[in-house]
Amino acid sequence: MKFTELALQGVWIIEPVVFSDERGGFRRHFCTEEFAAHGLAPTVAQGNISENVQSGTLRGFHYQVGRYAESKTISCMSGGIYDVVVDLRKNSPTFMQWVSVKISADDRRSLYVPAGCANAWLTSVADTTLHYYMSEMFSPESARGFRYNDPAFKVNWPTEPVVISERDRTFPDFDPASLE
């Protein structure tokens, strides 16, 4: 696996090494030793699958605080996404900054989002299925979010969302007090 750190410290693109023969392909998707060697949380407490029917489906921004702050490793099993990570780590030199990346089933890359960062994605094609590992269990009491178009961040989405949940659409503007 090849690990490339992005502009926000601790946010990584993970590219697999694919072995191919007459049977097809084989690749390692997760390895505790390789994750730990790059300073990534190697714990998997939960695995989730997100099935998105329409292109332009937006999910997020989501994060958890306190004991349940979580890292995520996100992969596209079909389709593709435009993903945005916002650094909400108060002591980080990139606090309140964001980075975007495209990942797809075709490129087989994964995105690692460290604990303390918010995450949102917009599907770029119909029938996009994502698989993601979480380092902590979901905790409704620790769950937080803010709107995809929060003026504090000025995220440049490639297109306007077509499908967005009522919850995600009506999240309030980001409040630093939400990090407590």
Question: Could you please describe the fold and organization of this structure?
Answer:
This protein is mainly beta. The protein has a single domain, classed as Jelly Rolls. It has 2 helices and 14 strands, in the order ββββαββββββββββα. The protein has helices spanning 32-37, 166-169; strands at residues 2-5, 12-15, 18-21, 24-27, 46-52, 57-64, 72-78, 80-87, 98-104, 110-113, 117-123, 128-134, 143-145, 163-164. The chain has a 6-stranded antiparallel beta sheet, with no helix packed on it. The longest helix has 6 residues, at 32-37. It is globular, with a radius of gyration of 16 Å. The model has no long low-confidence stretch (mean pLDDT 94).
What keywords describe this structure?
180 residues; mainly beta; Jelly Rolls; 6-stranded antiparallel beta sheet
Helices and strands, with pairings:
Blueprint: E1 2-5, E2 12-15, E3 18-21, E4 24-27, H1 32-37, E5 46-52, E6 57-64, E7 72-78, E8 80-87, E9 98-104, E10 110-113, E11 117-123, E12 128-134, E13 143-145, E14 163-164, H2 166-169
Parallel strand pairs: 6-14
Antiparallel strand pairs: 1-2, 2-10, 3-4, 5-12, 6-11, 6-13, 7-10, 7-12, 8-9, 8-11
Low-pLDDT residue spans: none
* Average pLDDT metric: 94
**What spatial order of strands do you see in the largest sheet?**
1-2-10-7-12-5
Assigned CATH class: Mainly Beta
Overall outline = globular
Give the CATH topology: Jelly Rolls
What can be said about this structure in brief?
The chain is mainly β and 180 residues long.
